């Protein structure tokens, strides 16, 4: 009898483990949190005597299990995401995290340059090699270079100018050798590759990588970020506003608790992001009073091809109405839209 009972308990534990632990080939997203940017962003010597707050928003993304998969069908606060909507084809955990961190540093870079430009303070930008964003299967770099590698030198030429990498590789032919010096995980490596046809190209020779030019930024005053545990580009707008708030003597918040989302592009445009609806839920839980949402442009052909698709602003408004929050949802296409709105606010 006792053995039978233990057997039943064992079976039950296995079933529970399958339901709540076994990972499926999909993801579950849900509301994350709101994080006051004042302790996360420091403009050295900047103005910190502000009453209100600017906050960045996060969403939580985790592997789906059978239990969370089923639960997502019965709640608006969990969303099932196909694996291809989260990770690139063949991308492992390490590569995904590297890409998210790179997107975060790019977001911070643009936030600084836009904020300083709006404040009338010059910055010094230097090109500093290229960052490998993807290695194409079957290309010359496959099995040699890795996502996250920082290429600094090509055939003895240090990469210090925009377009240099493309020019140096573009001048070569199939079968040519290329000597590369790079940084990987704080180590310096030298490798030699033989150029092949770029996969899915028109016969062009190349390394078979997708890359992004890396840049270093020097500012006075310096800007320091303490966001090592956060990835992705969606905090760009709020970074920009927080940096400006510390650069300027005035309190841009006017005493309000303000949050928002949106990638900051180089020209000050606020780019579309994912999870705007869940960020509204998280912001409302934290008593945020004003929420900036990207009013991204969706051409008619995009709407026709994706019935039901909404702009980030439309998503945010829809969720705000559903949960009955009193939080004000403000559409922004550029950082200037956010600044103009703040300028019209009465002090709290």
UniProtKB/TrEMBL annotation:
Keywords, A to Z, come to:
Hydrolase, Protease, Serine protease
What EC number(s) is this enzyme filed under? 3.4.21.53
Kindly report, in one word, the top-level EC class recorded for this enzyme.
hydrolase
List residues of the Lon proteolytic domain: 228-345
What the record says about family reads: Belongs to the peptidase S16 family.
Q: Which NCBIfam families match?
A: SepM_fam_S16 (NF041438)
The protein, known as = endopeptidase La
* Organism, scientific name: Sporosarcina psychrophila
User: What does UniProt list as this organism's lineage?
Assistant: Bacteria, Bacillati, Bacillota, Bacilli, Bacillales
């Amino acid at each position: 009898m006792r053995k039978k009972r233990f057997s039943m308990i064992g079976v039950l534990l296995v079933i529970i483990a399958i339901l709540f632990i076994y990972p499926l080939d999909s993801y579950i997203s849900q509301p994350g949190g709101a994080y006051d940017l004042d302790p996360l962003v420091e403009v050295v010597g900047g103005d910190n005597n502000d009453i209100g707050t600017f906050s960045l928003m996060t969403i939580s993304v985790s592997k789906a299990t059978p239990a969370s998969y089923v639960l997502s069908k019965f709640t608006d606060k969990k969303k099932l995401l196909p694996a291809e909507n989260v990770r690139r084809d063949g991308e492992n955990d390490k590569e995904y995290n590297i890409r998210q961190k790179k997107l975060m540093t790019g977001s911070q870079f643009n936030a600084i340059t836009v904020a300083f430009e709006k404040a009338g303070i010059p910055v010094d930008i230097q090109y500093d090699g290229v960052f490998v964003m993807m290695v194409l299967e079957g290309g010359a770099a496959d099995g040699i270079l890795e996502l996250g590698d920082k290429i600094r030198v090509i055939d003895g030429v240090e990469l210090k100018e925009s377009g240099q990498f493309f020019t140096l590789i573009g001048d070569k032919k199939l079968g040519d050798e290329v000597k590369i010096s790079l940084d990987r995980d704080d180590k310096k490596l030298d490798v030699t590759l033989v150029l092949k046809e770029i996969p899915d190209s028109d016969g062009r020779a190349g390394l078979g990588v997708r890359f992004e030019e890396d840049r270093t930024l020097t500012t006075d005053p310096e800007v320091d970020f303490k966001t090592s545990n956060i990835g992705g580009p969606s905090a760009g707008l709020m970074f920009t506003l927080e940096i400006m708030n510390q650069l300027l003597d005035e309190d841009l918040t006017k005493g309000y608790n303000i949050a928002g989302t949106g990638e900051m592009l180089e020209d000050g445009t606020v780019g579309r992001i994912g999870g705007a609806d869940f960020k509204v839920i998280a912001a409302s839980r934290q008593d945020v009073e004003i929420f900036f949402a990207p009013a991204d442009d969706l051409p008619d052909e995009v709407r026709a091809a994706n019935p039901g698709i909404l702009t980030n602003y439309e998503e945010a408004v829809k969720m705000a109405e559903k949960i009955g929050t009193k939080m004000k949802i403000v559409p922004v296409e550029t950082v200037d839209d956010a600044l103009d709105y703040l300028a019209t606010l009465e002090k709290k």
